[in-house]
Specification:
With 454 residues, the chain is of the alpha/beta class. 36% of the residues lie in helices and 16% in strands. It has helices at residues 8-18, 58-61, 70-80, 94-106, 120-137, 158-162, 167-170, 197-215, 240-252, 304-308, 330-345, 348-363, 402-412, 434-452, and strands at 37-41, 44-47, 52-55, 111-117, 145-149, 181-183, 219-224, 228-229, 235-236, 255-259, 283-286, 298-303, 372-378, 381-386, 415-416, 423-426. The modification N6-(pyridoxal phosphate)lysine is found at residue 288.
């Protein structure tokens, strides 16, 4: 019998001897606790000492229907007894076939083909390469660049990072990256005094038009996170921007890549964010919630014309050159199928609307807080912007790490609230109830009071 100690302290000590964690300055763990989780129960995580934490960020935006969801767990167990994995080049299997059929059925109209990958960054890499290669196959090899929004984030592999504009992630690796053409974000927070979100969107579309007039001949695609720029600080924009973007892409002959990795599967109030503008992109990137937060999987959906640009005799040399060892993994596909089945069988989006309205009511008083510059929300995503000077919207010095104080307060009071700098955000699993949302907001409000003091 293994009698190795499994307390928080014992597990953290073992971890820190060998493990290097993502997006982390490991030196922080000399004073910031490392939390060993031993099980999940719905919207809650339980550590080795028995303390419980309400998962207010869905474990990096992945979890939809709770940890250890019994439906998804049962589907995984059944699949594991049958087929765990098989090469996806020259072979196929029913979970992948069914998943592709289901994704095409629920996706915006016109998306007819599905390419599987492993994670969100890989999906963005696929879309970028596929867009470029499509134009190359059509005789437009001069199209080699991409347009991205200021403040955008699309992943941390080199291609995905190349179309990102968050300095924290990009600046170190800048010498290795492609240079995107940056279009001004339609972020409503950056609007002029009195300017509505729709007016910001219209103004930014005018600037995008001017940019495409100069550069469309060399541009493969415009890539955006529809409605919410998540890692860029939960910046939100009006759906009109997406509708106008679709028109401009059609007019200037460039692809529209919708990165719905974080915002898809109900986060914004509709199954896909693009639905709120009534548009279909040329490429739709999906991951995170695709499997309900259980296993890594991503998918890129595209159109039949894009697919046909690659469909030729082998000797033509037009095949799409991209692969992953775990492409179309049966276990992950089965988890995704069960996730989609929950959407089909239960009133998920209807219930989310009620939860989102409750969250909005609870956050409303923070608008009057002297150190809160903005409270914004799109569906089940809400964010609170902390600043040193509300009138001038002057941020706190980054070195003061005020958001970290909120995070630490949350851990001490049973809530996982991991801010983006000084933006405190809420993106909980859909299984939370109103009382649990109250716990998240109450904890955040108290944490903010401590964070801005002194």
């Amino acid at each position: 019998m293994d009698d190795t100690p499994r307390s928080n302290a014992a597990l953290a000590a073992r971890d820190l001897r060998h493990v290097w964690h993502p997006c982390t300055q490991m030196h922080d763990h000399e004073r910031v606790p490392l939390v060993p989780i031993v099980r999940g129960e719905g919207a809650w995580l339980v550590d080795a000492d028995g303390r419980r934490y309400l998962d207010g960020i869905s474990s990096w935006w992945t979890n939809l229907f709770g940890h250890a969801n019994p439906r998804i767990a049962a589907a995984l167990a059944e699949q594991a007894r049958t087929l765990e994995h098989v090469i996806f080049a020259g072979f196929t299997h029913e979970p992948a076939i069914r998943l592709a059929e289901e994704l095409v059925r629920v996706a915006p109209p016109g998306l007819a083909r599905v390419f599987f990958a492993d994670n969100g960054s890989a999906a963005v890499e696929v879309a970028l390469k596929m867009s470029f290669h499509c134009w190359l196959n059509r005789g437009h090899g001069e199209k080699t660049r991409f347009v991205a929004l200021t403040g955008s984030y699309h992943g941390e592999t080199l291609g995905a990072l190349s179309v990102s504009d968050v300095a924290l992630y990009r600046r170190t690796y800048a010498p290795l990256l492609l240079t995107p053409i940056l279009a001004p974000s339609p972020d409503a927070y950056e609007g002029a005094p009195g300017e509505t979100p729709a007016q910001v969107a219209a103004r930014r579309l005018g600037e995008l038009r001017a940019l495409l007039e100069r550069h469309a001949h060399e541009v493969c695609a415009v890539i955006v996170e529809p409605l919410v720029q998540c890692a860029g600080g939960m910046r939100m924009h009006h759906p009109d921007y997406l509708a106008g973007l679709r028109r401009l892409c059609d007019e200037f002959g460039v692809h529209f890549i919708a990165d719905e990795i974080a915002v898809g599967f109900g986060r914004t109030g509709t199954l896909f964010a693009c639905e709120q503008a009534g548009v279909s992109p040329d490429f739709l990137c999906l991951s995170k919630g695709l499997t309900g937060g259980t296993l890594p999987l991503s998918a890129v959906l595209t159109t039949e014309p894009v697919y046909q640009a690659f469909y030729a005799e082998y000797s033509a040399g037009k095949a799409f050159l991209h692969s992953h060892s775990y492409t179309g993994n049966p276990l992950a596909c089965r988890a995704a199928l069960e996730t989609l089945a929950i959407f089909r069988d239960e009133p998920v989006l209807e219930r989310n609307r009620g939860l989102a309205a409750h969250l909005a009511r609870r956050l409303e008083p923070l608008r009057a807080h002297p150190h809160v510059a903005d409270v914004r929300q799109t569906g089940m995503i809400a964010a609170v912007e902390l600043v040193a000077d509300k009138a001038a919207r002057r941020p706190f010095p980054a070195a003061e790490r005020r958001g970290l104080r909120v995070y630490l307060h949350g851990l001490a009071h049973g809530a996982l609230l991991r801010p983006l700098g000084d933006v405190i955000y809420f993106m909980p699993p859909y299984v939370v109830d109103e009382g649990e949302l109250d716990h998240l907001v109450d904890t955040a409000v108290a944490g903010i009071a401590r964070a801005v003091a002194g």
